[in-house]
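Students often ask why we bother encoding 3D structure as a string. The short answer is that it lets us treat folding as translation between two languages. Here is a chain of 244 residues written in the first language.
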Amino acid sequence: MAKRTSKTTTKPSLFKRVLIISGKVILWFILFSVIWVLAYRFINPPITPLMVQRNWERSAKDLPAKADRKWVDFENISDNMKRAAVSAEDQLFLQHMGFDIKAIEKAYAANEKKKNQKKKKVIGGSTISQQTAKNVFLWPGRSYIRKGFEAYFTLLIELLWSKERILEVYLNVIEMGDGIYGAEAASQAYFGSSCEKMTKDEASLLAACFPNPRKWTPNKPTAYIRHKQYLIKRNMRRLGPLDF
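And here it is in the second language, the structure alphabet:
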């Protein structure tokens, strides 16, 4: 009678199990994020993490929630607003694939200099694509982890969206004041008219306030903001029409 050979099943090591679980998590994250980004190519983002955070901050101060915004399609946004945004924030927007390496290097060098001088203000080198990825898909902050996710989502929107869609989303979700989001709500609040009719002066003044919209306002522009407006208008003339 033949003897039965007993087979002993060895469990995978802890390290191998961790690798398997990590691989599955990464795979599911990539699949989910691609579907999410692809969906927003056709569906307008209903809310952003920044809007949620700002309302938490207002709630902590016993203030009512506020998120003034009205979505405007790309073709109904003033060309002046589009050109002012590109002139102010990302003049190579139509040429790069999401990242302006020279601007990043310049910002890094400036921030290192400020660090040595013990100054806290940080200079950003983010493109419109990076800002859109951050505003729509990520939480506010400056950690390396968030920067890594920002780079990932920037690549995704560059691959899955058109430049028109990136700029359209950007101009509809960007913070433009206390509880004010997007070009239409800002134009109504500051100029009393639709962003479709925004003049070059209005658009450049609004774009000058983009970096810190809760500190700077088109209603009471400082001398610094007026100077920024002048530079943006000069860049707009040099930029010419946007060829999408």
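Translate back mentally: The mean pLDDT is 89. Keep this in mind for the problem set.
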